[in-house]
Amino acid sequence: MNWSKAKTILIVVFLIADIFLLYESYLGPLALRMARDKENTKEIVDYLEKQGISVKSAIPKPGSSKAALDVKYKYFNEQYAMGNFFDGLEDVDVKNYDDRIVMENKDIYVEINGNVELIYTNKALIEGQTGSFDEGEAQKKMEAFLKKMGINQKDRYSGIKKMKNGYLEMSCSQGYKGTFLDRSCLEIQATDKGVVSMKMLWFETVNNGKAKKEVISPVNALMKLSELYKDDEQNIIVLDMSLGYYFNTDVEDVKEFDVTTVKEGTAIPVWKVITDKGRIYINAYNGIVEKN
What we know:
By secondary structure, the chain is α+β, with helices and mostly antiparallel strands. 30% of the residues lie in helices and 37% in strands. It is built from five helices and 15 strands. It has helices at residues 3-50, 78-85, 123-128, 135-148, 218-228, and strands at 53-55, 69-73, 93-96, 100-104, 108-113, 117-122, 156-164, 167-176, 179-191, 194-201, 203-207, 236-248, 264-275, 278-283, 289-291. Helix 1 (3-50) packs parallel to helix 5 (218-228). The protein is globular, with a radius of gyration of 26 Å. The protein starts with a helix and ends with a strand. Mean pLDDT is 82; it is low at 25-37 and 250-255.
């Protein structure tokens, strides 16, 4: 017998055996689990439909283990505003309140709340706005302004840009490794002459120093909606769902979020569910509704 031919036959036999073992030990059970997951998802969606909750969006794949984040808001004060928004001390009217700083001259208005929320307005550009402008140049002015503030495109999550009231407008939240980091916000307007207004609440410190934990599946998170809306007589429509982070204050006596009281803490993994009634954040560790 030709040994070379026999060797080729043996290689083919072993290859077929390996493929068979791979299917039996991994691909077969995986396909079965996927089929069962799909069936379970359909059952849950049908159940929610009977409860008056219609899921119109795609349901995400189960998320991998996530670690909570240690975060701290970006700090602003009078010196920061003077160095970044005003040419000099002359003609700048500064008013200090308990938890607010207001700075203003004939062209620029700046308000700092709790040393973390920054509001900027260029009065001269508002007064000088005539209507049409170069949108591409406005985009460049916007990006240059944000870069000066230390905010790059990779730091932003899902920015929405549109023309509104004669300005190029962008709004977004902060991002972390391709996901949202909510309880942050950035709203900015610009023309080809420069930035007209901005409102910002941004994290300057994001540390992933905690151990990773398993997160609940998206269908388990959706089931929380039936409990949340069990007494609601109106139908609810689920428009979107995603996994990201939400700043959890860990302060029991703060009923409503207040940046003058809570400036640093933990951002936990959450399933964010967007419905026609608003946003719902579900703790991805334990399924507790954090905010609705």
